[in-house]
Specification:
Number of helices: 8
Distance between the termini: 46 Å
CATH architecture of the largest domain: Alpha-Beta Barrel
Shape: globular
Bound molecules: 4'-deoxy-4'-aminopyridoxal-5'-phosphate
Number of domains: 2
Structural class: alpha+beta
Order of helices and strands: EEHEEHHEEEHEEEEHEHEEEEHH
CATH superfamily of the largest domain: D-amino Acid Aminotransferase, subunit A, domain 2
CATH class of the largest domain: Alpha Beta
Radius of gyration: 19 Å
């Protein structure tokens, strides 16, 4: 279902509502050549909008497309769209690029023939609480099996079945493993666990998205004096975790209330990470510098 309030940038103008941006001749419609990103406006803040704008450019280039606009233009347009809604609104900002018209049998993309659109829609920030996680039977592909370095729509066919399977079993989301059997991420977020006051998270290995929120939360926790270890983690590690939380651009930091059949305790670290993120976002990024100074980091 399309959100009630949505604004679409396409071919040089803002359109009210969803716009028919992809044609029946587009490569993207037949062969899944879309890349996208997601960012937020909430409580007047748009944290790391520059990084999300830069990432869609990299994603498009990874897929062999030549982006028709640069990162600064993507960012500027997203800011313009936000201004149309108002700074007090909770919004989800989604830029997309895709490969346009091609002929039957043409598998490779035409680099110069790249479409660009932005959708901005009203979306409340989910409150923490009640988020549940199971383990998915479906794995993450290796970089030599799929374009895992891009935030590509085509990868999300697998994520959609991870999510559908989790929901069918009564969970909000699921952990998926990489092909070596280590925990990778969920269908839409990165994942962290806590043991003895130390935070652990999978080390980037090309088999999951090294999320912008993930990297931000790691930096914020470390600047706050909390030890964060990036390493290979197994399901046994998660079975004995005191706490689990996930990060992603939609909800930022979300504590896991139930993991498999286990009710998790009070999410102390999850809520601390959330608080640090909000402080960072609402201070326009100044908190990081201040925290780093206090922690004796540069
Ligand atoms: N993993 C997957 C599969 C995702 O879809 C997302 C959301 N983009 C993330 C992780 C989190 O990444 P980010 O913090 O950059 O949004």
């Amino acid at each position: 279902a399309v959100g009630k309030e949505i604004l679409t940038w396409y071919e040089g103008t803002w359109h009210d509502g969803a716009a028919p941006i992809i044609s029946s001749a587009d490569h993207a419609a037949w062969l899944g050549s879309t890349v996208f990103d997601g960012a937020r406006q909430f409580e007047g803040a748009r944290p790391d909008l520059d990084l999300h704008s830069a990432r869609i450019i990299r994603s498009a280039e990874t897929m062999g497309m030549i982006p028709p606009v640069d990162a600064a233009t993507v960012q500027g347009l997203m800011e313009e769209g936000c201004a149309r809604f108002g700074a007090d609104r909770s919004l989800y900002l989604r830029p997309m690029m895709w490969s346009r018209d091609s002929a039957p049998g043409i598998i490779d993309v035409e680099p110069e023939n790249t479409g660009f659109a932005i959708c901005i829609e009203a979306l409340d920030m989910p409150a923490p609480g009640g988020f549940s996680l199971t383990v998915s039977p479906f794995c993450r592909p290796r970089p030599d099996m799929a374009v895992t370095e891009a935030k590509a729509g085509a990868l999300y066919a697998n994520n959609a079945r991870i999510m559908a399977d989790a929901r069918k079993r009564g969970f909000s989301n699921a952990l998926s493993l990489d092909v070596d059997g280590f925990v990778a991420e969920t269908a839409s977020t990165n994942v962290f666990m806590v043991r003895d006051g130390v935070v652990f998270t999978p080390v980037p290995n090309g088999m999951f998205l090294n999320g912008i929120t993930r990297q931000r939360v790691i930096a914020l926790l470390r600047a706050d004096g909390i030890e964060v270890v990036e390493t290979s983690l197994t399901l046994d590690d998660f079975d004995t975790a005191e706490e689990i939380f996930v990060t992603g651009n939609i909800a930022k930091v979300m504590p896991v209330a139930r993991y498999k059949d286990r009710e998790m305790g009070t999410p102390r670290m999850g809520m601390r990470a959330r608080e640090l993120y909000w402080d960072y976002a609402l201070s326009g990024g100044e908190t990081v510098a201040a925290l780093r100074k206090t922690a004796g980091l540069v």
